[in-house]
Amino acid sequence: MASRIVAIALLVLSAATAIRPAQAQNPVPAAQGGPITPADIMKLHDMRDVALSPDGKTVLFTVQQQMSTFNSPHRTIWTVPGDGSAPARPFIVSAGVDAAPHWSPDGKWVAFLSNRPDPLLRGKDGSFAFSMEAVPGSSPPVAGTPPAATPQPGTSSTQLWLMPVHGGEAIPLTAMPSDVTDIAWSPDGTKIAFLSVDPQTAAEKAAKAAGKNWIEVDHDTHFSRLWILDLATHTARRVSPGSINVSAMDWSPDGKRMALRIADTPGINDYFYHSRIVLFDPATGKVGKTLLDHAAEGPFWSPDGKSVLGEAIRLPGFIGLGVRICDVATGTVRALADAYPALFTNVRWSTDGKSVLALSFEKTRSNIVRIAADTGTVTPVVTLNGESSDFDVSADGKRMVAQLSSPDRPSDVWTIADGKARPITRINAEVEHWKLGKVRQIHWKNHKDGKTIYGVLVTPPDYRPGTPTKMVVQIHGGPEWAWWAGWLGSWHEWAQMLATHGYVVFLPNPRGSDGQGTDFARAVGNDWGGMDYQDIMDGVDTLIKDKIADPNRLGIGGWSYGGFMSAWAVTHTNRFKAAVVGAAPTDLVPFARITDTPDFPLGYFGDVTTHMADYDRRSSARMLQNVHTPVLVMDGMDDTRVPITLSLEFYRGLKMLGKPAEMVKYPDEPHWFHDPVHQQDVQRRVLAWFDAHL
């Protein structure tokens, strides 16, 4: 989304000063020890997509402009030696987005996705008039005839590009009429599989031009298709049949078969909850047997070609992920380490195929673990001091790198050796000079059942133990998500900003969260606002008892489920003096019927008609008479996950009762905000709201 300034529509002007962007009370900038401002946060860069070369000597990674967002307008591919022996530097750069670097099997080429303008010269027939010279010792591909209808030069759709590792110009390989979304090299390096969504047909374009722009709900016919580009013949062909939507793929070790993750429709609900892993013959386009239902990650072929690895949503309830090994010959599925108290992500095979490597989120931190393929025994590889969402391993399995955010620095590339991790980049060097809040993992017990609960506490830079201090409780989304003892500064993560303005920030992981196993995540079935709320309040009471939190200056806030819990809290207690309710499902019956992922609420509460009373009992919008806390409501006007009508209902209901409330709605924003102007404004208003009331 372009970084444009969009006017923010305020629904109410009463007490307007309370939600105006905060004016700095301390002119000292963060770089000189002053408090962190929203503007400081927005200058930070995020890094992702760690890709280690097959020989383990070079790391590629991406750097983007905005923290914690999915639609940054600028992204660059960087490189750094795997041992950190030289500084990181940009490797693939354009004015737009360059992302998803994939090494060729021989390590001589990098395939990547980019929305840069297409520089190809075209003949009258639309064919490419372009070729590239070989890197010595290799057999390079040549750009040639476009695999589909070609867009006009100068368009900025995302296409597949190639870069020689030893330098040179990026080479366009596709000119698809729609974005290319994922890529996978064949094991011999002669082909690249990629995904692209069906473009608008001529009839659809004509209808739209004529004003016939209506949308038939649940009738999306624009499927994500699997294509295979032959690098020797310069041609691509669509290989997936018309009846399936493909979201992920992997080649068998011999390159003769593939495994795909597919769904029957391109709808987001089917993608999340009804995807499956199947065998596929790319030569004939025939879909084979289903190996894994309700697949959420994968597929990944084993080195011997006998098994496919994936992760499945653990039924009933669509809550939790389970590591699964599928036998290709028999179709049997084995579960690995289901009882282990952690969330496994980013699974992959070890080089010898005897184990599975994975990120393991435990309590509030990430680890890399090895799971024995035969017994499911989990062995730590390295304990990471923070939160990681990506790692990679060299072809021989001897070298490893990870993306990691630690308490005192946003995401960087870390190299891992001998059970230890050390950073080899400094993407946000300015943070080194900031005076940060102290981040630490804490735990306490629920006084009703004695369950140990974990969370994160961030205290002001100059905090003195034993000093009761104003405190904000920030609740994470989900509920199956979790706070981490790592970097906590983005448009959505307010802890470091608030801490440097004198707040203690409490980030609890109540039951329903990740980090203590699937049973813990399931424990809020039909009980949102029950024992999870008790977990949070017992944490607040513990911090008051320990003379960390001032009981007379408590605030609460959050986004999505965090907004739900903030709304729930102010309908059940007057202890909080201010609340921020962001994109919150405050009325669960309409939420279940209008969200774009209807299987999500069903997994927690069951069929709406049968369990309507249960949904209503957990709906804070039906308890507004209990609210005495000033509430700031925020939401995106294009939110299809938690539509803005739910926020409006909560806000309007409060105003009709004469309750203190204000609301801000943001044009063109989905559930997870994209526009940097809006992201900065959210932070400003959060800080101003708590400053005004605490």
Automatic annotation (TrEMBL):
Keyword Protease carried by entry: yes
Cited InterPro entries: 6-blade_b-propeller_TolB-like, AB_hydrolase_fold, Peptidase_S9_cat, WD40
Peptidase S9 prolyl oligopeptidase catalytic domain sequence ranges: 495-694
Biased composition (Low complexity): 136-156
N-terminal signal peptide: 1-24
Protease found in the keyword field: yes
Domain of life of the source: Bacteria
Pfam families: PD40 (PF07676), Peptidase_S9 (PF00326)
Region (Disordered): 135-156
An MF annotation (GO) of this entry: serine-type endopeptidase activity
Keywords linked to the UniProt accession: Aminopeptidase, Hydrolase, Protease, Serine protease, Signal
Name the UniProt record assigns to this protein: Dipeptidyl aminopeptidase/acylaminoacyl peptidase
Organism: Stakelama sediminis
